[in-house]
Structure prediction request, 431 residues.
Amino acid sequence: MKKHILVVGLGFNKAVLIALLNRILEGGDKLSFVDYDRPFSPFKFSDLELNSKSFEYLRLDEPTDKISMRRMLRSLDQNQPIDAVISLDHFVITQLAILCRELDIRYIDPDAARLCEDKLAMQIHLRDSGLPYNKVYDVADLSRIEKHCFPLILKPCGGVASIHIGKLNSSRELENVLAEFNRTQILADTALGKNPSYMLEEYLEGILLSAECIATETEFCVLAISQRQRADFNEAVELGSLIPSCLSESDQRHIEDFAAALCRTINFRCGICHIEIMFGDKGIRLLDFNPRLPGVGIPRMMEQAYGIDLIQALIDSHSNQPLSSFRKEAKCFMMNRLLGAHEPCQIIIPWTRKTFPNGAEVIVNRQGVLPKCSTNLDYFGEVSCTAESAEMCLEKMETIMPLLETELKIHLLKWSNVDRDLWKRFSQSKA
Prediction:
């Protein structure tokens, strides 16, 4: 029997959203889509090129209005019971989760949704649950911060896309940042209808990883672990990924065990989650938990490296299909590097997709006047390559980047030297 699938929110990756909606429509399931205005939205629904218009489109003018959302859900569910709810961003997931429980619609547990929306609350929950956690401080209470605590990472509790995240090396830098916040009254607009708050988190050194996981009421599985690259101007901004990671088998088991324990303790039992982890001298530490499909090219990379169709897996997970059917062994390594301008510039080129002689593929999705890249939303394209080993992938990538700069006639964001050295140290320790 065909399912009724409700998709809520645009997310931040247009290609992923288009692929998800087209897949649902091609499968013959009933699709309902709910749109609303969000902070930092990089595109609009009207920008999407879909294969079919045979679905129900609804718009919430006041997404924080619980009465309007309840009325919408009840109406959709009465026409045909909703079998699956998929959200591509987290701005309304707590309210959505509460209403879905109230109406007996399967979705994320409300307590899990609250923790996903609040990074400070998540770290406190990990501490109270006996799992590894980061030392955190509420910006509203700075009395516990001493000189030896620095460096610290300042971030919004409900932030997205590495916006308004920065490393602070001293109490003086912290005082200057907070004074600027108070002077301009620009506390980042990170959540709809909420007074955004900030947290300070201990600075962690190590390899940045992400685990792509899938869960049902009875099962949990880590589908892939990727090793991430960070930008030179800000270590919080992602520059690319390597799939699969170079983890040893024992380290991979540790990551998988941590991810499983994390999902159990927050009661995440529905759909796909993207877990960002720092793995270093202090062990495994959670940076962020996202109850959604990953972005930055990861779904496409997983299909290339593993043969895993992550979007179809998300749809099928709502049918309680055995999770063992989703997991596969890697066939090759794949690396991508996101393209961001090192300074404001303009590019006009006669192509949007190109394959270079070494097999690297470049996609450019924005041209014209470009801003200096300062967040994950400022990238204008992506370069990717596959190889039999991680070393060969990296060699290809390092070869193509200067050629691409010459062709585009701009300076591109560079890979952080700190991160590069950590990768080398990590690889040597696994040799």
